[in-house]
């Protein structure tokens, strides 16, 4: 991540298009006729790709395939005029009937791990495209399990790893079984042999580069965890949850052997994630127990937006001040327009949490802080310009981003500080977000601060992140680390407040009911930033009253 995959790919395109054009001039051969290349990327990166091509490969003619459907239909008829057609994954999915007949020279998937699930409509659409050459660019090709690698190779070289079932039988199941803490020596040996065979088959087609291998002069990245205690109101609401009907439903689903989707578990996880960020995200004034909890800890004039109830916001303020960003209060802000020594990226999972950071902290308490914002509501055509402006203008102190939108592919080396207000179940997404600043072109040490509520769901998320990182590094490298699985106790522990969260290495296993395996496998599929607003917690919140 941040090692120049985009520029290397553009160099390949420029070279191969030039070679093909020269060959056609000489031979007039049908197999040398001009064909455009297709670049598929997250929508935030379409303008970035166009800018990079125009900057470093002026002979190539790029175009972004976007806009209203009628305009896109007109553009398809003119693809032959261009060398590089750039579009988002969503556009490919929506327009696949129009795009499927087109012949492409190269098809490049930027952040290609997006097609990791071979069963989605998006993945099926991408795999139906016709191209002579195919490339996948990804800093995180494996995020959860070995089957994701099969899906990527099924795009690159269909049939190379056999069918999904055959691949799972040969590689997936033995490797997974050998990771069980109670696996037999025979299972461990079978898993090691399967992993070795998989390495031999796929590693010749994976060009893997680590920063420490190729960027000797890249400054270090220092990750620091900032542990925070719950506020009295958060503790009270957490306690109310632990004694509610909702908690009983969660316990029942976790212990059940049913294969049904554990809906109450997902709702409870979302409720607790919001609660530890800010009580206002879950507070329902119509619920008597919420009003009672607030009155109990806040006195005669309670306000849910009081920062006394939101220690994470106060901690964020302190981190910014420690970095020399902003004044401690509105009175201090009149002292001048001095440029801060450090500049920060502030990542949240939810747009609603970004709203709180912006309105309750930056506008009210730190008005001297200058900032920009990039989330799902930002017009796609303006996102690249926001990144360029932030990098070029040192007077802008902060850039507020959602991990879902701002965590992939962007170059934000204008910042040397990264602050995570929230954390993703999938560690690769947080690593991707960190490397928006820690990448080629960065000249300063990058400090990463992770705000973590002590003894809560968040501490346990960090343990799951370590667990998943081991899975990824094992498959795409020669390393072979011992991995544990999570049992019933570990899943139930996610919903408890504890003084010290158990380390990932202490996890235990056993014969887990199918619903528990589904829960673990589905953690990465919890609603993204764009879907939080559609997750109806009303019925779940009402069950807290029981």
From TrEMBL:
GO terms for molecular function: ATP binding; ATP hydrolysis activity; DNA binding; helicase activity; TBP-class protein binding. The keyword Methyltransferase does not apply. Keywords: ATP-binding, Helicase, Hydrolase, Nucleotide-binding. Residues 1-159 form the Helicase ATP-binding domain. The keyword Hydrolase applies. Residues 330-482 form the Helicase C-terminal domain. Transmembrane segments: none annotated. It holds the Pfam family SNF2-rel_dom. This is SNF2-related helicase. It comes from Rhodotorula toruloides (Yeast).
